[in-house]
Amino acid sequence: MGQNRDHDLSPVPNRRGFLRAGAGCLTLADLLALRAQADTVQPLQRERTALIIVWLQGGASHLETYDPKPDAPSEVRGPYGAISTNVPGVHVSELLPMHAAVADKFSLLRSLAHTGICHQQGNQQMFTGHPEQILKLRPEHPDMFCVANQVRTERGSERALPAYVGVNPIPYLGSSYMGPGWEPFVVGGDPNLPEFVVPGLGGGHLPDSGPLGDRMGLVRRLDSVCELFDDPVRGLAFDSFRERAFRMLTGPEARRAFDLSLEDPRIRDRYGRNTWGQRCLMARRLVEAGVDLVTTSLDGPLCGRVGNWDDHAVNHHIFDAMKLRCQVFDRAVSALIEDIHARNLDRRVMVVVTGEFGRTPKISYEADSTSGVKQPGRDHWPHAVSLLLSGGGITPGQVVGSTDRTGAEVRSRKVGVRDLMATLYHHLGIDAARLTLTDRTGRPVPVLPTGQPIAELIGS
């Protein structure tokens, strides 16, 4: 069967589809097989630094988190004040008291701005560096995590764990013309549930390959049927990727990294026995075990009715929603920051917390789309985005940049998305300014044509 590079890049589409339906455990094997077909670039550096992105899908309000404006006019400020942190002169929203206690271990960037007014554009601008304006579920250009995955992965090397894992990954991103082999190994579901299952494995407590071994036996029996339909040479090639995925997912490193039951119960409690807390804990376990890139999106039921931080008045009563969310969010993120430092991972691992944009300073009032009750909300606002950065050797305990008295516009040290990307690439040891990719037309595309690492964070 011929391949269509725009729609199906699978090496053995009939066989793969049949086995996936029959066994349900081939996600990682698919990635390995697809990766082997892709053109690769030469790694520039391979320091084992790692990156965790904690993503607030929908766009969390900067005014109710990292850039409070308690002295703004009443139509802006909302009901919550600012509190002091353990760093003199640095304040956060009163909804984040646990953040305040660890402020000496993170820095805030309050002056990022871009032009992505909707969620797809926002996500894609933040992590491709291209000024996407058309609403697309997948980006026109590869996101930086897929690029870093390729650069940090030696062709033919054996890793104990995937280099890039999405623990409930960030939506609207993707590998574009690089090919899907560089996309994340996806861990969905709720790791707080006793019945939680890692994709391709038999359960949340990873046994000595029993359930997965049984599944692999079923796959092998199905092979005898598949060989009647598929190219046997290509089938044998895919078998090698399947066996490699099997070895990876049943090896001792993967067993330990994904098994939260091995964690001290007190640490699990510190993160919070809920979806977000245990996702953040899994992210820490993964980077500690050797994963380079972990993204996790904090969304779903803990966000409220529409399952994200998109606090238009028709979706949520923003102030009620933020008060409920932040109790869980505050605990999970502060625990992650403390844990990274307590385990001496803070130079090797960088944690970044943000969403795709902030929210409008002026409070809007509309009827809730379900109850019809008029309530407050804030809309999309890419002109002022606040981020938290911790670890990665950054200078902690500072605020970089500022916004005006209402949080509407950047007042000092304006930073673009390419500057943010340059900072993250710098931490990963990648000289992105010298890196090019080849698009579908064969044209070389610079990964990061402009942008400089944020000097205040990384030092000279």
Question: Could you characterize what this model shows?
Answer:
The chain has 460 residues and is of the alpha/beta class. The chain has two domains: 9-38 and 195-255, no CATH class; 41-192 and 274-458, Alkaline Phosphatase, subunit A (3-Layer(aba) Sandwich), CATH 3.40.720. 33% of the residues lie in helices and 15% in strands. It has 14 helices and 18 strands. The chain has helices spanning 13-23, 27-37, 74-77, 97-101, 119-128, 144-151, 210-226, 232-250, 252-258, 265-271, 275-289, 318-342, 417-427, 455-458, and strands spanning 50-55, 82-84, 91-93, 106-112, 164-167, 185-187, 293-297, 349-354, 358-359, 364-367, 374-377, 380-381, 385-391, 399-400, 402-403, 410-412, 436-438, 444-446. An eight-stranded mixed sheet has the order 6-5-7-1-8-13-4-14, with helices on both faces. A two-stranded antiparallel ribbon has the order 2-3. Strands 9-12 form a two-stranded antiparallel ribbon. The longest helix has 25 residues, at 318-342.
Low-confidence parts: 1-26, 42-46, 202-229, 231-238
CATH topology of the largest domain: Alkaline Phosphatase, subunit A
Q: How much helical structure, as a percent, in the residues?
A: 25-40%
Tell me the CATH architecture of the largest domain. 3-Layer(aba) Sandwich
Q: Strand-residue fraction?
A: 15-25%
Write out the CATH superfamily name of the largest domain. Answer: Alkaline Phosphatase, subunit A
Q: How big is the Rg?
A: 22 Å
Mean pLDDT: 85
Q: If strands are numbered along the chain, what order do they take across the biggest sheet?
A: 6-5-7-1-8-13-4-14
Helix/strand class: alpha/beta
The first-to-last residue Cα distance is: 54 Å
Tally of contiguous helical segments: 14
Number of domains: 2
The largest β sheet comes out as: 8 strands, mixed
Shape: globular
Q: Let me know the number of strands.
A: 18
